[in-house]
Design brief:
The complex is a heterodimer of chains A (about 140) and B (about 160). Chain A is mostly helical. Chain A contains six helices and no strands. Chain B is an all-alpha fold and about 160 residues long. The chains are: A mainly alpha (about 140), B mainly alpha (about 160).
Chain lengths: ~140, ~160
C-alpha cells in the first residue's frame, strides 16, 4: 500500500473541472459526459453518427497528461500496484459492469446525481459499497 | 468544429482527473479503504472530487437544460428512465469490484494511457473487451426474458 496525501483543495478544483467539462458537453452536444458510455460506443454496433466526436473526447482524456508533461515538465505520481492477471480481471469487470449498469463514476456519480436521478443514486451507492468491500477484502482479510 | 470542441472538453475532463488526483489509482484505493480509517491511512480526497464535480454540474445542468436546444445538436439526450431493475444494481456491483481491485474507473484508466504506463494499456484493453461483451450479451434475445432489455448504455 502506498500512502497518499490528503489534497482537499486540488481535489475540489479538479472535481470542478470535471463538472465544467460535463456542463460544456451538455451545452454543446446535448450529451451526458459518461466516460463508459462514450468509450463503449466507440465499438460496434453503431446506433448514431457521433463516432468522431466520441473519439475526440477520448483523445482529449488521453492527451491531458501529455499536455501536463509538456507544460510543467513532469507528471504527478501514479501508482498502479497490480500484476497483469489482476489488471485483466479488474478491467473486464469494470468495463462489463459499467455498461451493464448503464454508467460509471462520471455518468452516474457526477451527471446522474446532478440530475437528481434515483437510478444514478442507487448505482453510485452500489459501486461505492462494492469498491469499499473489495478493498477491505484485498487489504484486511489476508 | 464540434470535433475540436469535444476534444477540448475531453481535455478539460482529463486535466480535472489529473489535478484532482483521481488519475492515481493508489489515491482512489486509499479513499475506498475505509478499513484504513483507524490507522489514519484513509484519503478522503475523492469525496472532494465528487463534491466539486457535482456542485458545478448541478448548477450548470440546471441552467443549460433550460435552453431550447444544445448549440450543436437538435435536442438534449438526457436519460428519462426512473425504474429500478436488477441491472441498475448488478452492473454497478460488478463495476465496483473491478474498481476496488485496481483503483481504475473508465475515465482515469483512459487518461492513464497518456502517462505511457503499460499497466494502463492492459487494463484499458480488458475494459474495452468487457464493454463489448456487455453490449453483446444485452442484445442477445433470451427465451427466459419476458421483457425486452432496456438500452444498456442509457444512464
Amino acid at each position: 500500500m502506498v500512502a497518499t496525501p490528503f489534497t482537499p483543495i486540488a481535489s475540489l478544483l479538479g472535481g470542478a473541472m470535471i463538472g465544467l467539462s460535463a456542463v460544456l458537453l451538455m451545452w454543446t452536444t446535448g450529451r451526458i459526459a459518461g466516460v463508459s458510455g462514450i468509450a463503449a460506443r466507440l465499438f460496434p454496433p453503431y446506433e448514431d453518427r457521433q463516432f468522431a466526436g466520441r473519439l475526440a473526447f477520448v483523445a482529449g482524456l488521453i492527451v491531458a497528461p501529455v499536455l501536463v508533461r509538456l507544460v510543467t515538465g513532469s507528471l504527478p505520481a501514479q501508482t498502479i500496484a497490480a500484476g497483469t492477471p489482476l489488471l485483466i480481471v479488474a478491467g473486464l469487470l469494470t468495463g462489463f459492469g459499467a455498461v451493464w449498469g448503464s454508467g460509471c463514476t462520471s455518468g452516474h456519480g457526477v451527471c446522474g446525481l446532478s440530475r437528481l436521478s434515483v437510478r444514478s443514486l442507487i448505482a453510485t451507492m452500489t459501486f461505492m459499497a462494492a469498491g469499499m468491500a473489495t478493498v477491505f477484502v484485498m487489504r484486511h482479510w489476508s | 468544429m464540434t470535433i475540436l470542441i469535444q476534444f477540448g472538453i475531453g481535455l478539460v475532463f482529463g486535466l480535472g482527473l489529473i489535478v484532482s488526483g483521481m488519475s492515481n489509482p493508489a489515491k482512489v484505493l486509499n479513499f475506498l479503504d475505509v478499513g484504513g480509517i483507524p490507522a489514519g491511512t484513509w484519503d478522503a480526497s475523492l469525496a472532494f472530487v465528487m463534491a466539486g464535480a457535482v456542485a458545478v454540474t448541478f448548477i450548470g445542468f440546471s441552467r443549460v437544460l433550460k435552453l431550447a436546444r444544445p448549440v450543436f445538436a437538435d435536442r438534449f439526450y438526457v436519460p428519462t428512465r426512473n425504474d429500478i431493475d436488477p441491472r441498475i444494481i448488478a452492473g454497478p456491483a460488478i463495476f465496483g469490484i473491478g474498481w476496488g481491485l485496481v483503483g481504475f474507473c473508465p475515465g482515469p484508466a483512459l487518461t492513464a494511457l497518456g502517462f505511457g504506463s503499460a499497466s494502463a494499456f492492459i487494463f484499458v484493453a480488458a475494459m474495452c473487451a468487457g464493454m463489448v461483451l456487455a453490449r453483446f450479451i444485452a442484445q442477445v434475445p433470451s427465451a427466459t426474458r419476458s421483457v425486452t432489455p432496456g438500452e444498456p448504455l442509457e444512464i
